[in-house]
């Protein structure tokens, strides 16, 4: 008996075919009966086995968008898993709302500052003789800004000298925040700092608060307010980018004493004379100049620090002139590393004295040529321009303490300063 090569059907796999040989085999009746019983038993046991079950694929739930896509050709969005669910979107909206509350509180502070300061800022129009008449025009118009404050019991507008220079009082118009126009009754100015002060009279004049000293630091947030391109009472926001910017070429080059604050708050033509303000609503500087190749703001604006502004303003209002301290030293404009090494210094820092005026405060105090002035009243001196700027805002009735470097040592000297007018002709 052989096994066939074909696989039998399920119902027949236990029934093997029997091939007859050439010689037939005769079986007895008993043998036939026994064989039939075996076959019947096998069929009975086979019938008791459970039928094999057919495995069905699991059911898949489709989203409405996926059902719609499947109904239109079976196309689906491969990025669907990256999109937010409705629940996730609601949660994100809640987070955004919480974050917005914090930002809105900061925005409310800026709105309050604007409400406080706009009434204290003025737009200035000045008609003045033209320096270079063009097309037969003998006059020219200048526009700028200013800030109202109280100085020595008088209500004044502080602005830049270049805004009102050469203009008669009757040709200067000051426009307030509400649109009211007034004219100044008196004008003072200081060419060496580009500061001008105009006394004004009128009812309901709002005055600005001034910061006490120069506590402003690099990175502090500031607002610039003024009339850029004639757009009066515009407000811009930025930070203090740097301090102590000196030796800038401004106008006709007669701004001798410089110590500018640098800011990236947008300052444009017309902002001149407007206030630079801190987050407490205090004026910290007077916007004066920009560094620009295009003529507009490029994120580099300059403001006179409030300490210099008020040093000049008070004297102009009280006496009509500005008196500045005088040391009586000639300074090395190019203090090189080589010169510093020759004097025993590791680096060129401070103001190198190249000469001393005979009979001057410096001479009386014992300052010598080749001394390097490192400090004045505890403030470290960066270079010669820094010393000149610092002395320019020193009252003439002061006695200052100097730290000088001489023969490898730091020496302390006390020196009463004198008035510059005593030694220099106007």
Task: Provide a descriptive summary of the structure in words.
23% of the residues lie in helices and 30% in strands. With 426 residues, the protein is an alpha+beta fold. The chain has 2 domains: 89-130 and 140-322, Thrombin, subunit H (Beta Barrel); 325-422, PDZ domain (Pdz3 Domain, Roll), CATH 2.30.42.10. A 7-stranded antiparallel sheet has the order 5-4-1-2-3-7-6. Strands 9-10-11-14-13-12 form a 6-stranded antiparallel barrel. Strands 16, 17, 18, 19, 20 and 21 form a 6-stranded antiparallel sheet that branches. Strand 6 (186-190) and strand 7 form a beta hairpin. The relative contact order is 0.08.
Class of the largest domain in CATH? Mainly Beta
Which regions are unreliable across 5 or more consecutive residues at pLDDT < 50? 1-28
Radius of gyration from CA coordinates: 46 Å
The H/E string reads HHHEEEHEEEEEEEEEEEHEEHEHEEHEEE
Mean pLDDT: 84
Cα(first) to Cα(last) distance is 139 Å
The structural domain count equals 2
Q: Which class best fits the helix and strand makeup?
A: alpha+beta
* Biggest sheet record: 7 strands, antiparallel
Q: Numbering strands along the chain, what is their spatial order in the largest sheet? A: 5-4-1-2-3-7-6
CATH topology (fold) name of the largest domain: Thrombin, subunit H
Q: What is the architecture of the largest domain at the second tier of CATH?
A: Beta Barrel
**Approximately what portion of the residues adopt beta-strand conformation?**
25-35%
Number of helices: 8
Helical coverage, percent range: 10-25%
Shape: globular
Number of strands: 22
């Amino acid at each position: 008996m052989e096994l066939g090569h074909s696989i039998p059907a399920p119902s027949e796999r236990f029934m093997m075919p029997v091939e007859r040989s050439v010689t037939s085999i005769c079986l007895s009746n008993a043998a036939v009966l026994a064989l039939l019983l075996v076959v019947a038993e096998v069929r009975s046991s086979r019938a008791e086995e459970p039928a094999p079950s057919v495995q069905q694929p699991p059911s898949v739930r489709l989203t409405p968008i996926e059902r719609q896509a499947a109904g239109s050709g079976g196309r689906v969005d491969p990025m669907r898993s990256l999109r937010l669910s409705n629940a996730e979107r609601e949660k994100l909206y809640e987070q955004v709302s919480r974050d917005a509350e914090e930002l809105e509180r900061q925005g409310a502070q800026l709105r309050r500052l604007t409400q406080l300061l706009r009434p204290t800022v003025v737009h200035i129009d000045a008609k003045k003789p033209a320096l270079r008449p063009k097309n037969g025009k003998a006059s020219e118009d200048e526009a700028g800004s200013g800030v109202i404050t109280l100085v020595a019991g008088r209500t004044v507008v502080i602005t830049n000298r270049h805004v009102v220079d050469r203009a008669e009082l009757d040709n200067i118009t000051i426009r307030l925040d509400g649109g009211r126009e007034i004219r100044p009754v008196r004008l003072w100015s200081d060419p060496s700092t580009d500061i001008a002060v105009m006394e004004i009279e009128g009812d309901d004049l709002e005055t600005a608060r001034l910061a006490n000293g120069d506590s402003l630091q690099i990175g502090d947030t500031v607002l610039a307010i003024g009339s850029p391109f004639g757009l009066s009472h515009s407000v811009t926001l930025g930070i203090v980018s740097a301090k102590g910017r000196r030796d800038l070429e401004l106008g006709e080059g007669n701004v001798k004493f410089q110590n500018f604050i640098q800011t990236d708050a947008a300052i444009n033509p017309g902002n001149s004379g407007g206030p630079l303000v801190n987050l407490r609503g205090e004026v910290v500087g007077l916007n004066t100049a920009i560094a620009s190749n295009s003529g507009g703001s490029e994120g580099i604006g300059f403001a006179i620090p409030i300490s210099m502004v008020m040093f000049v303003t008070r004297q102009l209002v009280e006496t009509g002139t500005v008196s500045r301290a005088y040391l009586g030293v000639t300074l090395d404009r190019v203090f090189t590393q080589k010169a510093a090494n020759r004097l025993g210094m590791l680096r060129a820092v401070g103001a190198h004295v190249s000469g001393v005026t005979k009979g001057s405060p410096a001479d009386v105090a014992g300052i010598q040529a080749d001394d390097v002035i490192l400090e004045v009243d505890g403030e470290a001196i960066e270079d010669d321009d820094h010393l000149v700027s610092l002395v320019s805002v020193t009252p003439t009735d002061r006695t200052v303490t100097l730290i000088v470097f001489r023969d490898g040592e730091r020496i302390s000297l006390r020196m009463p300063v004198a008035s510059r007018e005593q030694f220099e002709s106007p």
